[in-house]
Amino acid sequence: MHTDLVAALDIGGTKIAGALVDGHGRIQARAQRATPAREDGDTVMRAVEAVLGELAASPLWGRVTAVGIGSAGPVDASAGTVSPVNVPGWRGYPLVRRVRHAAGDLPVELIGDGVAITAAEHWQGAARGHDNALCMVVSTGVGGGLVLSGRLHPGPTGNAGHIGHISVDLDGDPCPCGARGCVERIASGPNIARRALDAGWRPGPDGDTSAAAVAAAARLGDPVAVASFERAAQALAAGIAATATLVEIDIAVIGGGVGKAGDVLFAPLRKALAGYATLSFVQRLAVVPAQMGTDAGLVGAAAAALTRTADATPARV
């Protein structure tokens, strides 16, 4: 990617982060606002416009060639709209049109947050050098994205690779998405904690009932905590193996809060994967932790904008 400068937005239910990012993935300026997630859609948009306004005040803004957006989903890149589950004021919200207007008619590229993190890990992180990769975010939910034949593969609406809603337990618990036994329903942080609590795990004196607290207990050998992580690992392994079998990825990268659990997650995950990824062309599949950290969404949104600029494709919407 050349040394162009792009603006990047990482939009979630808690914060709206913005940055100016160069062609080497380096952040040159930042801005951030809290997401007024319980307010109406235009109030949320004003927070986005405030972030863009702060970036536009930078002396570097004149070099910006495009804007990349990684947004909580669902997104519809073909329509330029977003309907984030955790921002109820935005349903079919015309984010691309509004951002383009706020950014002085620069071209705008929209992708989902899982796809953005995938773009970052492939460009600068753990999937660098791999032409076929799955990157996952395992935290409050489970999202993901794909790199196929060396290129980001967002799909027509920007949601391809959404591994959290592959069903891995045909008779499993109902998932809020409407299906049963989804990877997310078993492997997300809140579900790991819920399962441990239901099975009799009790938090320490601090009362922390998060998945991180369950991970700490598992590291100390608590059998209920260990079992909850093993069940999450099994669900992740089944979803990863299904994806690898379908599209021939050779690496799966796992980020997000649950991905930080270390061996408590990765040891049973690699063991379970060996039992699911059995065909010859998926047996060498590597599973590794993400490297990009909290700036992954911004760097990935920038990568999408830079790639679009390099392709010189006309604006989608």
By CATH, the superfamily of the largest domain comes out as ATPase, nucleotide binding domain
Q: Class of the largest domain, according to the CATH hierarchy?
A: Alpha Beta
Beta content comes to 15-25%
The strand order across the widest sheet is: 3-2-1-4-7
Shape: globular
Number of helices: 9
- Fraction in helix: 25-40%
Structural class: alpha/beta
Short description:
The chain is 36% helix and 20% strand. It has 317 residues and is an alpha/beta fold. A five-stranded mixed beta sheet has the order 3-2-1-4-7, sandwiched between helices. A five-stranded mixed beta sheet has the order 10-9-8-11-12, with helices on both faces.
Main attributes?
ROK family protein; ROK_cs; ATPase_NBD; globular; five-stranded mixed sheet; disordered C terminus; single chain; ROK; Nucleotidyltransferase, domain 5; 9 helices
Structure explained in plain terms:
The chain has 9 helices and 12 strands. With 317 residues, the protein is of the alpha/beta class. It folds into 2 domains: 5-111 and 294-311, Nucleotidyltransferase, domain 5; 126-291, 2-Layer Sandwich (Nucleotidyltransferase, domain 5), CATH 3.30.420. A hairpin with a 4-residue loop joins strand 5 (75-76) and strand 6. It is globular, with a radius of gyration of 20 Å. Mean pLDDT is 93; it is low at 313-317. Belongs to the ROK (NagC/XylR) family. This is ROK family protein.
